[in-house]
Structure formats: C-alpha cells, structure tokens
TrEMBL record:
It comes from Gillisia limnaea (strain DSM 15749 / LMG 21470 / R-8282). It comes from the Bacteria. NCBIfam families: MTHFS_bact. It catalyses: (6S)-5-formyl-5,6,7,8-tetrahydrofolate + ATP = (6R)-5,10-methenyltetrahydrofolate + ADP + phosphate. Its EC number is 6.3.3.2. It holds the Pfam family 5-FTHF_cyc-lig. One of its GO terms (molecular function) is 5-formyltetrahydrofolate cyclo-ligase activity. ATP binds at residues 2-6, 131-139. Its cofactor is Mg(2+). GO terms for biological process: folic acid-containing compound biosynthetic process; tetrahydrofolate interconversion. This is 5-formyltetrahydrofolate cyclo-ligase. Substrate binds at residues 49, 54. Keywords: ATP-binding, Ligase, Magnesium, Metal-binding, Nucleotide-binding. The keyword ATP-binding applies.
Amino acid sequence: MKSSLRSKYKTLREALTYEDIETQSLEIANNLLKLPIWEYEFYHLFLTISEKKEIHTDPILHILQGKDKNIVLSKSDFKTRRMQNFLLTDTTLIKKNKWDIPEPVDGIEVPASKIDVVFVPLLAFDKSGHRVGYGKGFYDIFLANCRKDVIKIGLSLFEAEDEIPGILSSDVALDYCVSPNHIYEFKK
C-alpha cells in the first residue's frame, strides 16, 4: 500500500547524506535539460524542505532563471488542501510555514490555467507514472485544476517501483519522472 511505500522512502531518504542529495539533485537538474520542455513560459516549482531531505531544487531554479522563465511558487492552505500560486519576483519574500515548507508570503497570483510545466515532489513513483506523496493530496487537487495539457514532471532521488498498489481515480499521473540516473517518460 501507499503507506508502506511512504515509510520505505522516508527511511531511504534519511540514510542519504546532504552531500548525496546535493550531487543527485545536480544530476537530476542536468537530466531535466534533456527534456523537450524549455519552450514554455510558466514553470511551477516546489522549494526544498531540507528537514525532509527532499531533492534540492535550487539548481532547477537557476536553470529557469537563466532561461528567463516565469517561475511560480505555491503557498499551501492546510484547511482546504489547496495551493495558491505566486510569481517569483525579486521582491518575493519566502518564509517557512509551521511544517517547514518554504513558501511565498504573498505576491502576484498566477492562475493554475496559465501554468505550462509543473515539477512535482514525491516520495515514490512507479513505471506507469503514478506517484506517492506525503498523503495530503495537495498536488492531485492542484494538478486537477491545471490545463489538461500541463506537463507534469516528478523529481525523484530514487528509481521507479514496478507498481504502486491502491491508485485512486483522483490520483493524477505524471508525464515524466527524472531521477539521477534515468528519465522516465510515461505514454498516455
């Protein structure tokens, strides 16, 4: 079940050193450069929760800035499980919420319909493009409100599971998942 995969991958992450994560995050960013996704305008990126040993997204942020893309960051509402999306600008103030998630305080709101590419956090994924996150459903709700043609890219420090049991109809599958060693493309 998803809960056992969550537990397994949280344990695997805990075993990684920060140097391992830094190296693997750079490899993931370099692999992202090989994808045919760079002609778009609005890119949604999550900021790293260091305490959870997530992939470092700073290298991806630098790539997007270097390509002069519009970067969209979200702020989570834990009551509604919705994310409010803001354009990253020079004046955007980032603060950690009580769950250690770095988020924009406020700013220029960007509707989900404008977003072209979403980099999706995850704990595990399978060879069909299904993912396991932290279990609150934030990204499934958010992705369901994006355009049908939005490109969904998972970022994983680990490789794919064969299959994730217990997939729900509300679970939104990925188009790609990028790990340090592979680029997975999921045919729809």
